[in-house]
Amino acid sequence: MAASITPIQEVPDIYPLIDTHTHFDEPVFDNDRALLVQQAYAKGVRHLVLVGYLYKHFERMYDAERLLNTTKTSNSQKVSHIESHIAVGLHPFYINEHSEEHSEEHLKNLAKMIAEQRPLAIGEIGLDTFTAEMKAPNVFARQVQFFQAQLDMAVLYQLPVILHIRKAHAEVLSILKAHAYDAHKLGGIAHSFSGGEQEAKAFIKLGFKLGVTGQITNPNAKKLRRAIQAAVDSHGIECLVIETDCPDMMPIICQASDNSWPNKQSRDRNTPANLSWVLLSLSELLEVSPDRLAKQLWLNSCNALRTTWAYPL
Fold it and tell me: Where are the alpha helices (DSSP H) in the chain?
């Protein structure tokens, strides 16, 4: 990218936003997480969801949540306060972390944690056949086992789910249609949606919102942009939520050259502050004003996550 790209500090207006999917507990943020919270708050982020993928990292997530929810200055006054929330789930791409002999134990431990700590949602869960290894019949069968078990937990504890789907949209849709989980009642998000137009409409029909990341800022992401446009043409802007998926999915406009950022780490990480670029790019694509879109996205996020967070005035 050319050095003339507008840096994140020059987003023209501020709109209240909910980052529905982050991994902001990752160690890559440990050195400057408090500063990044201030930057995100300055760009409108008021809530963010820390989404789980491995059981061994759940404790780290809860530690980060406690820290983020008690951010204070040296004189004990809250500043740049962003409410953080937890979703816990066992990610399909890391299914090999759960050996067959320990599968039931790991699922029981997850269910116990959900019962005792009541997360905001269960996720990210689903199916992933992105690599040849993940397509292997035995590996895929265990992905299905874990996906269905976690959908069972969502029904039992009446929680929304956050779906991870790569190269497996038809398979996920088939399982959801046959399962008792009802996103119309419980909510749910198809995180970082990457399917086609018909798949987008199918997930919406089941009651899910489509999660839109910084990929939408890439003019070459034509399949994604067509799918989101088609979904909105059929179902309105009520079908979308936005997310950073940080530290991944960096918006194109933030992929600046060495001269545009103070250090390499800033260039290599997506951060919650960049959510505003997702809003603005989506606004341009859909020809909807940022103000109207931000308000609707807030309502959509609350609906998907079954919360009642008040829109800041």
Answer: 33-42, 58-68, 103-117, 132-135, 137-157, 169-178, 183-186, 197-205, 222-235, 264-268, 275-286, 290-305
